[in-house]
Amino acid sequence: MKTSICKRASLFVPICIITLFSCKNTLEDQEIQIIPLAQNINLAQDRDTEMIAFKNVSFIRISTKKYLMSDMMRFAGVFNNQLFLYDKDCIISTDITTGDIINQINRKGNGPEEYISILSASLDTYDQTLIVYDPDKNRITKYSFNGDFKGIIQLEESGCTCVMSDNNYLVCYRPNSSIKNLFGIYDRNWNVIRKSNLMQSSVKSRIMAFNVPHTFNNKYYIRQNYKDTLFCINLSSESPEIHLQRGKYRMPDEYRNSLTAMAKVRDRYIEINDVNIAGNHLFVGYFYDQKLYRDVWNLVNSELLSRSVINNPNCRYGFPIHIEGQTIYCWCDFVYNNSIFCFLPHWESIKLFPNHSEEDNPILIKIDLS
């Protein structure tokens, strides 16, 4: 399986566990945490500190015998020691300890109980159901964890769907000229609880959710594409909590109305790619000056702890960990409970597993935080 850096960098809509922190800066009269990306963009590249305290590191070698996943792997959830992953065609459940594939759910097709492609998948552990969004049919299809068909939800406004920690549903709508809202929250019977456009903008943008089920304090976090603020949402409101301050490196909205104009200037600006939060650490990946930056920030004092700048294969991939006499670099692809999960690139995998092939399913590293 051969994967480019930039392709792998945009694979996941990750999850994260949030620990509340004090906020000392304000934005629009609300207290939020400020992360000064613009102020620190020219600091030394490839900087490290021992910033993550962890109590255990383990590896999950996902079996290749039953199914070879595509490059577009994503995380659906964890249930009873089973890890659920998916690509555009298939969902697999693996033993979270051994990596052995337990179930392969492939209902791809044009039939009434099938999907054409998968854009998002989430676990509803309340009734042990997979919630699958098919953008081609513009609908949600429900399956049991074994792949049995359980029903269809056809929404007037549809989009990527996640199950929230209180067992309600969050739908991030696909933006177009007829849809004014950016997301909606639905109850167990798919009745609308509320809808929101979050922030008015002259540029059509979508919502990126990065916190899914079983979070501390029933908190769910989203960000609006092209915007700098990370919001916490609940059944009644949304509130800004973290501001990724890009300053003069934020692309003006007028460029975004033209793909041609945007292509000419985008290298001058910071473009956020992915966000994760684990404990007191913010993991943020972004593009600037034709390079992919991966930063780890301390959310207690807004200090930059680690930075890797990626512009070619076989380079430093993220933050370092030391194990079995080796230093390997990994990136936080998703978080579940108090553990970080990272897909290792092949050149890092062979440091620990010399027989690992580029054509194998990837190796996951699971880091349990202290």
Task: Please explain how this structure is put together.
The protein has 370 residues and is mostly beta strands. The chain is 7% helix and 43% strand. It is built from 5 helices and 29 strands. The protein has a 6-stranded mixed sheet with strand order 2-3-20-19-18-17, with no helix packed on it. It has a 5-stranded mixed sheet with strand order 1-21-22-23-24. Strands 4-29-28-27 form a 4-stranded antiparallel sheet, with no helix packed on it. A hairpin with a 2-residue loop joins strand 25 and strand 26.
Give the helix/strand layout.
Elements: H1 5-9, E1 17-18, E2 25-27, E3 30-35, H2 37-40, E4 54-61, E5 74-79, E6 82-86, E7 91-95, E8 101-105, E9 120-124, E10 129-134, E11 139-144, E12 149-153, E13 159-163, E14 169-173, E15 183-186, E16 192-196, E17 207-209, E18 220-224, E19 229-233, E20 238-244, H3 253-256, H4 259-265, E21 271-279, E22 281-288, E23 291-298, E24 303-310, E25 319-323, E26 326-330, E27 334-336, E28 339-343, H5 346-352, E29 363-369
Parallel strand pairs: 1-21, 3-20
Antiparallel strand pairs: 2-3, 4-29, 5-6, 6-7, 7-8, 9-10, 10-11, 11-12, 13-14, 14-15, 15-16, 17-18, 18-19, 19-20, 21-22, 22-23, 23-24, 25-26, 27-28, 28-29
